[in-house]
Amino acid sequence: MASQLLRLTRSPNPMPASFLRGGTSKGIFINRAALPEDRVHWDPIFLGMMGSPDLEHGRQLNGMGGGISSLSKICVVERPTQAQADEGIDVVYTFAQVGIRDSCIDYSGNCGNLSSMIGVFSVDEGIGLLRSERLDPHRMTATIRSLNTNTNKVVETTFPTVAALQGVTPVLDLQQASVAGVPGRASQIILDFVSPGGARTGKLLPTGNALDHIDIEVSGNSCRFRVSLVDATNPTVFITSEDLRSALQLDANQPIDFHNDDVRNVMESIRQRGAMLMGLDPTAQAQPNIAALSFPQADDTDADIVTQAFSMGVLHKAVPMTVGLCLGVASGVENTLAYDIVRHVRQHRREEASDLITMRHAGGTVDVGSKFDAQGNVLSARVVRTGRRLMKGVVWW
Fold this sequence. Notes:
This protein is α+β, with helices and mostly antiparallel strands. It has helices spanning 2-9, 42-50, 82-86, 112-115, 118-125, 241-247, 261-277, 321-330, 337-349, and strands at 15-22, 25-31, 73-78, 91-98, 105-106, 135-136, 141-148, 153-163, 168-170, 189-194, 212-218, 221-232, 234-240, 289-294, 305-311, 314-315, 356-361, 364-372, 378-385, 387-395.
């Protein structure tokens, strides 16, 4: 304990940091150079920054957290090693999902929303590399190729820039794109996950099947759920709202209250069983995620599929971007639940197949794209995000 305290006292308090919005999430961005070399000593710093644990209230009023999973996040950014730079990596980052009511910090997955701001932060702080071949003088954009240590996957971000005295400066206030759940328009940030399959398990389909079945007990009855267990950007358990409605003994047109404790318990039971089938820790709430899929309403001609996604045990106000990207990939994998829904919807509308699908979530819609090679391997998953600088200064822990 004494040695740990000594190491922590050598870390600056307050610590230099930026507070940024990426997509529908906000988080603290830190230069790894400010943190202890040994990652074992990061947790108490991150808990202090976020105001966790807040067992009684769950509001994190003693820190920068906002009481929900999308506002309790930290990204640690660092320069690549020479070997990584030689492989084309410009910057390296580690994502931390900080518990709200507990002291759990999960490093098992990535955050798609905050990944969209890694390149911007690295350029702002001069942490990573800025290669001339990745600057487009005609479109005035820069592309940063980052390595996420949680998943050991490469993520590229492309964003607008303007010339500065030393290099370029990211521009985030152009009226180019909007994100459901975020007011107004801002600069378009293209987020591209390279070879996203098997981010945690090493396989796009961890069980080898596009469709599996899970049996759980609901209100004393044994119920079977069709599930697609897909690992792309982050592992996700997909079920259908139809099966959930049947298990809850609801009428076909009766809406599901996803905030209801009984519904949440059923979703969590399925998620934990899915985690075990995927070879993951069922007690870790951050991974895998779970989402219920359904057909769009008859008059909804904008969406190909509807999703209700959970994050850290509660219904997400929009959709975790890695879940959205995983769904985009899953829709291109034959015989998954997502594939069957999207194919049926497009055949009914007599629309041609496309690399891009539109999903409706609790906050609106989002377009996600995926590309596969001839052997069915996922080459990339892509989505458009926006971001904003909120604060640069120091944060106490």
